[in-house]
From TrEMBL:
Main location: cytoplasm
The protein's name: D-alanine--D-alanine ligase
GO cellular component, as recorded: cytosol
Gene (UniProt): ddl
Keyword list, A-Z: ATP-binding, Cell shape, Cell wall biogenesis/degradation, Cytoplasm, Ligase, Magnesium, Manganese, Metal-binding, Nucleotide-binding, Peptidoglycan synthesis
Cofactor: how bound: Binds 2 magnesium or manganese ions per subunit.
SUPFAM superfamilies (alphabetical): Glutathione synthetase ATP-binding domain-like (SSF56059), PreATP-grasp domain (SSF52440)
Location of the active site: 27, 159, 290
Domain ATP-grasp: 113-312
């Protein structure tokens, strides 16, 4: 496993950096934690950086502040869905991570699955529930088709917000209606019984996989951010051949949806050791206990080095913006 490239830029070459954090999505608190942790890492390394919360001030203030680049730590809608990326392009401000298309696709679990499916990449069987024409009378048929254990996921929420695992038609109907509070489209996905893995991608390099284990029904919001019962294994326990296979799958999946710069791909493995892609994240959590830093540490990259590697992806958008 190769170590991702550490940036060779000096702190002065980054110029004035706005760390975008907070926002007004359902993941605001997670974003504030990520953003402040990243900001402190930049300041420790002498980068002229400051926090900027677009929920508290207009984005055009970035122009008045003479910002040279933006490090996006906004999770969820308004920061991870392509809208912030598009706004920064219009303002001619280089930014980190995926461009508009990759961000928008990754944010939508349904369209992500459809792209992967069209390319023959492995993903679980699924159905789509649309709020405008959802027929509760079809819940029994959906359960049977998807194996009688189903994951219910709002199409465009992160951090497992609005998700539920159901084992009956009645539970499915209730969970779908609950998920409609977050999104007009809901992904109904066959439950894969087996371990969950995540693979971080930084500057085109897949980092060592992490296996998550939780006593919860699934890896939900509480398991991710609130409890101390979740266990993380890195190395994940896969054989060398399986590790290579998983790294290749994650890289292909990230590239398929036009992901770039850095991100994370989540995967399940069934009892036959077949991998199934779940989703991609273009702005994953970045506290020192988050998954990307855990994988980076095993790859030989400190948290501060990782943050600079992410910030350096903003240079990739300079030519893109100039030609926009």
């Amino acid at each position: 496993m190769l170590k991702p490239m550490v940036t060779s830029h000096t702190p002065e070459q980054y110029g004035k950096v706005a760390v975008l954090l907070g926002g007004d999505s359902a993941e605001r608190e997670v974003s504030l934690n990520s953003g402040n942790t990243v900001l402190n890492a930049l300041l420790r390394q002498g980068v002229d950086a400051f926090a900027f919360d677009p929920a508290e001030r207009p984005l055009t203030d970035l122009i008045d502040l003479n910002v040279d680049r933006a490090l996006i730590m906004l999770h969820g809608r308004g920061g991870e869905d392509g809208s912030m990326q598009g706004a920064l392009q219009l303002l001619k401000i280089p930014y980190t991570g995926s461009r508009v298309l990759g961000s928008a696709l990754a944010m939508d679990k349904i369209h992500t699955k459809q792209v992967w499916q069209s390319l023959g990449l492995p993903t679980a069987k699924y159905e789509i529930a649309d709020k405008r024409r959802f027929d509760a009378g079809k819940c029994s048929a959906i359960m049977e088709k998807l194996g009688n254990e189903v994951m219910v996921k709002p199409a465009q929420e992160g951090s497992s917000i609005g998700m539920a695992k159901v084992t009956s038609a009645k539970q499915l109907e209730t969970a779908v209606q609950d998920a409609f509070q977050y999104d007009d489209q809901v992904l109904l996905e066959q439950y894969i019984d087996g371990p969950e893995f995540t693979v971080s991608v930084v500057q085109g390099q897949a980092l060592p996989s992490i296996r998550m284990s939780t006593p919860h029904t699934f890896y939900d919001y509480a398991a991710k951010y609130q409890d101390n019962t979740t266990e993380y294994f890195c190395p994940s326990g896969l054989s060398e051949a399986q590790e290579v296979q998983l790294a290749s799958l994650a890289s292909r999946a990230f590239d398929a949806i036009s992901g770039s710069g850095w991100g994370r791909v989540d995967v399940m493995q069934d009892n036959q050791r077949q991998f199934y892609l779940l989703e991609a994240n273009t702005v994953p959590g970045m506290t020192e206990k988050s998954l990307v830093p855990k994988a980076a540490k095993v790859a030989g990259l400190s948290f501060d080095e990782l943050v600079l590697s992410i910030l350096s992806t903003s240079f990739d958008s300079v030519a893109y913006i100039a030609n926009d």
